[in-house]
Amino acid sequence: MPVFFLSENKVFPPPELARKDGLLAVGGDLSEERLILAYRMGIFPWFSDDSPILWWSPDPRLVLFPDELHISERLKRIVKKNFFEVSFDKAFKDVIESCAKVHRKRQAGTWIGKEMIDAYCKLHYSGFAHSIECWQEGNLAGGLYGVSLGKVFFGESMFTKISNASKVAFIKLVQKIKEWDFTLIDCQVTTRHLMSFGARDIPRRKFLKILNHALKSPTYCGSWL
Description:
Elements: E1 4-6, E2 23-27, H1 32-40, E3 44-45, E4 54-56, E5 61-64, H2 73-80, E6 85-88, H3 92-100, H4 114-125, E7 129-136, E8 139-149, E9 152-160, H5 165-179, E10 184-188, H6 192-195, E11 200-202, H7 204-214
Parallel strand pairs: 1-2, 9-10
Antiparallel strand pairs: 2-4, 3-4, 5-10, 5-11, 6-7, 7-8, 8-9
């Protein structure tokens, strides 16, 4: 499949036309309008500072259905003992900037550059992007952020400074959206870490079908505090 080059027009090619590795398009911008359109179509940006904006729609797609969340006995004990204070949307910029500093295996530098940080902070101020924070003794210990549309949470990145902090943040996120009857969390790409929580791969065509139905519900727009 060819890779599409985007113009200034806020449009995307169908995600089914993505390459085998999931790459669909190059270029465009990170405006709020384009980002929301991308997520609604099952597309997300992922690129490094030294490359143009790249848009992806992988097949298969890793997702977590809230009812399928798996928590190990050890993590259950950690959650029960309240080692961390958990908050929502209290420190979005701090969370995304901390995620940008995470060193990942087989990845030089970060894919969360200033352009991405600015774009997602704007989404946060508009009520579409959210953060979950874990605190210990008043210090940010770990967390994650993502985008919420309809009954779907699109997970973007997580970080931890103290062991298990990001795991607790993820568990609290799943518990929160389960209360709100969310359909799924889009985990985007397959990792063993997320699969240990019960996430699983589904075909892109199935993901898009579920996504389209979940987007018919209203968005919980605004602060999750």
